[in-house]
From TrEMBL:
<dbReference type="Pfam" id="PF09917">
    <property type="entry name" value="DUF2147"/>
</dbReference>
<dbReference type="InterPro" id="IPR019223">
    <property type="entry name" value="DUF2147"/>
</dbReference>
<keyword id="KW-0732">Signal</keyword>
<protein>
    <recommendedName>
        <fullName>DUF2147 domain-containing protein</fullName>
    </recommendedName>
</protein>
<feature type="domain" description="DUF2147">
    <location>
        <begin position="24"/>
        <end position="139"/>
    </location>
</feature>
<feature type="signal peptide">
    <location>
        <begin position="1"/>
        <end position="19"/>
    </location>
</feature>
């Protein structure tokens, strides 16, 4: 019985620790429709945060490409596309990287911050963070 309780405790603790991080899968919501349109996976590589599109909800968009992108992302499939690159931890937020909006092909400076264990704030901007747009992703449970 003690073994079962101890195992349960460690599983709950591990889940709690995992949910207190920016890393994992997140739902991105289309601001026009208010519906979840994709799942984004935020991951760590060499101490920096990155994110890629791992699921597209609309079956008609599963094979969509980033036709509005420029450079190396031009006409790349959106599914699997890295949209968040090179953010470094700075206190409570991750900053210093860039975010690509596949809807318009534009790249912005950005920072992200965990608002709650299941809500991630993403701020994309040009120049100063005062001039930009904020989105919120919810954890994909």
């Amino acid at each position: 019985m003690k073994k079962i309780l101890l195992t349960t405790f460690f599983l709950i603790a591990a889940f709690s620790i995992q949910s207190q991080t920016i890393f994992g899968k997140w739902h991105s919501t289309n601001e026009e429709t208010g519906e979840v349109d994709s799942v984004i996976e935020v991951y760590e590589k060499n101490g920096k945060a990155f994110a890629k599109v791992v699921e597209i909800k609309n079956p008609k968009r599963k094979n969509a490409v980033c036709d509005l992108c420029t450079g190396e992302n031009k006409n790349k499939p959106i599914l699997g596309l890295n949209i968040l690159t090179g953010l470094e931890k700075d206190g409570e937020e991750w900053s210093g990287g860039k975010i690509l909006d596949p809807r318009n092909g534009k790249v912005y400076k950005c920072y992200i911050k965990l608002e709650t264990e299941n809500k991630l704030k993403i701020r994309g901007y040009i120049g100063f963070s005062l001039i930009g747009k904020t989105a919120f992703w919810t954890r994909a449970l």
